[in-house]
Amino acid sequence: MGKIYVIGIGPGDEKMMTRAANEALASCDVIAGYRAYTDLVRDRYPDKEYFENGMRGEIERCEKCVELAKAGKTVALICSGDSGVYGMASPLLEIAEREAFSDVKIIPGVTAALSGAAELGAPLAHDFCVISLSDLLTPWELIEKRLRLSAEADLCIALYNPSSHKRADYLKRACEILMETLPADRVCGFVRNIGREGCEKHVCTLSKLAQSEVDMTTTVFVGNSQTKIKGGRLITPRGYDI
Asked: Per the CATH hierarchy, to which homologous superfamily does domain 112-235 belong?
């Protein structure tokens, strides 16, 4: 029997990948993942065997990892960001359990909420939540409920998957839902291509955010009632008397 590592590789820059992730990748026989992610590590590990497929191939990918590990291979299943935050750790563990395979190790990585927040300053320094606007696996009605409740709770919010070709207006819809509770001038920001070439960061208000053009490489941040802009950076106070 082999072994499976489920690895969060962070935003893509090697400097933002953990030592544990690099060590696991160096020790494996096979690297499996979505093609966009395997492309980020291929130059660093050119001698590895690769298994890659496209979007919506997640279950096939997990099944292949278990198959390879049962054949004696050490397999690295990679995800961008963190392996457990909208990553492959959950489906892989479920499929491994189904196939009676237990030698799985989860390697965490830097998720976009954290790496994007660092680009903007400190917008998540107090209680926060992370919500994906993709309704591919979650009904939009449930996403709406989570948006409303997070606004009522005065949480800082990180929004993943804010827009795509088929969901061009989803961020605008989300902002309109938030503005049922939050003021239009609530401090916000967004970062595109975090940790990669062409990284862009923007600070704006909630009403301006609703009009902004974003894509699937963008992570959006909505501050709480205490979040402010200082020196062009977003800061959510911890509560210290400063």
From this structure: Tetrapyrrole methylase, C-terminal domain (3.30.950.10)
pLDDT value, residue 23: 97
Question: Class assignment of domain 3-107?
Answer: alpha beta
> Token pair for residue 141?
């009605």
DSSP string, 170-189: HHHHHHHHHTTTS-TT-EEE
User: Hey, what's the torsion of the CAs at 178, 156, 162, 22, to 10 degrees?
Assistant: -170
Single out the residue of 38, 20, 29, 105 nearest to residue 74, CA to CA: 29
Strand order through the sheet with 228-230 = 121-122, 233-235, 228-230
Collect all residues with Cβ–Cβ distance below 8 Å to 52 and sequence separation of at least 6: 32, 33, 34, 35, 38
The H or E element that residue 19 is part of is helix 19-27
Residue 38 — left, alpha, or beta (φ > 0 → left; ψ -120 to 50 → alpha)?
alpha
pLDDT at 221 (0 to 100): 98
Angstrom distance (rounded) from CA 173 to CA 170:
5
Task: For the chain, give every residue range classified as CATH 3.30.950.10.
Answer: 112-235
Beta carbons of 53 and 61 less than 8 angstroms apart = yes
* φ, ψ of residue 231 in degrees (nearest 5): 60, 30
pTM over 0.90: yes
Please check whether residue 82 is in contact with residue 111, taking contact to mean a CB–CB distance below 8 angstroms.
Answer: yes
Splitting the chain (242 residues) into consecutive groups of 10 residues, what average pLDDT does each group show? 96 89 97 93 95 89 98 97 96 98 97 97 98 95 98 98 87 98 98 91 97 94 98 95 82
Strand partners, 122: 235
